[in-house]
Design goal:
Blueprint lengths: L1 H10 L6 H11 L9 H8 L3 H10 L5 H20 L7 H18 L2 H13 L2 E6 L3 H14 L10 H8 L6 E6 L7 H11 L3 E7 L5 H4 L3 E5 L5 E2 L2 E2 L2 H30 L1
């Protein structure tokens, strides 16, 4: 669960920190989170409502209500997945291998979309990449492969840096956006900046019904199934990285074809 992982990181802070106190209380009482109000949390942790709100915003939420909603949703989703596993099943087979097989079948029907994504990348004069949290390391692999193909793209891991360069896109810019859930509140700013400057959007994400960001994008490469829960967080790294590698493969095929035509023209 992404939110739990983020709370655990705060719990590792100096034990005199207010954020550490709040994080530890929530982790110890996560089963009762539905009944915890901001007032009750403040009383139990001897902190103010303003401090709790800052804690929630530091995690990427608008406030305590938004934070509580996502924490309950992630916890309940995790418990539901665990309860639904057959008694004689292997957890990893059901959560990871089965999901990967289904997602790979979906990719076989999306080959034209991968070719289109490669064409858009090749035609774009400026490319900006956006991604947060656990997706950063996946994007670094993707960015490295783009560089090897002599395709220049801007990617900075810091979220505020991503918001900064989203102000400078234009109609000739391609914005590659990688996110599993679009949970972070900064995504709203990024999409608004891109749209205000008429930039193109290529999104790599899990299929989310009625998601406004996916609806507003020019091209979406998505997958339907989560790979299960690993280390208390919803996992989809293999499926997301596979999409990126399939784009790279399409780019390599197009580059090879282009070079072959050039050689034929010479002769």
């Amino acid at each position: 669960m992404d939110t739990v992982k983020a709370i655990q990181n705060f719990a590792k802070l100096d034990n005199q920190s207010s954020f550490c106190t709040i994080a530890n209380y929530i982790l110890l009482n996560i089963d009762d989170i539905k009944d915890i109000t901001i007032t009750k949390l403040g009383e139990k942790t001897h902190t103010s409502a303003a401090t709790i709100t800052r804690f929630c915003k530091a995690l990427g939420f608008d406030g305590f209500k938004n934070f509580k909603f996502f924490l309950i949703w992630e916890r309940d989703s995790f418990l539901k997945n665990v309860r639904n596993l057959p008694a004689n099943s292997n957890y990893q087979d059901c959560g990871l291998l089965a999901a990967l097989q289904k997602n790979m079948q979906t990719y076989l029907t999306q080959q034209e979309s991968f070719r289109k994504a490669a064409q858009v990348i090749n035609m774009s004069s400026k490319i900006y990449i956006y991604g947060m949290g656990g997706n950063v390391n996946l994007i670094r692999i993707f960015h490295n492969y783009l560089t090897r193909l002599n395709i220049q793209a801007v990617f900075l891991a810091d979220r505020d840096d991503q918001i900064a360069y989203s102000h400078f896109v234009n109609a000739e810019s391609l914005n590659i956006i990688v996110s599993y859930k679009f949970r972070d509140s900064r995504w709203k700013n990024i999409f608004e900046n891109i749209r205000a400057n008429k930039g193109q959007c290529l999104v790599i994400s899990k299929k989310i019904k009625n998601n406004p960001y996916l609806k507003a994008s020019d091209l979406v490469l998505d997958f339907e199934f989560s790979e299960g829960f690993l280390f208390y967080r919803d996992n989809a790294e293999v499926s997301m990285l596979t999409i990126m590698l399939l784009i790279i493969e399409s780019l390599m095929i197009q580059t090879t074809a282009k070079n072959t035509l050039k050689k034929q023209d010479v002769f």
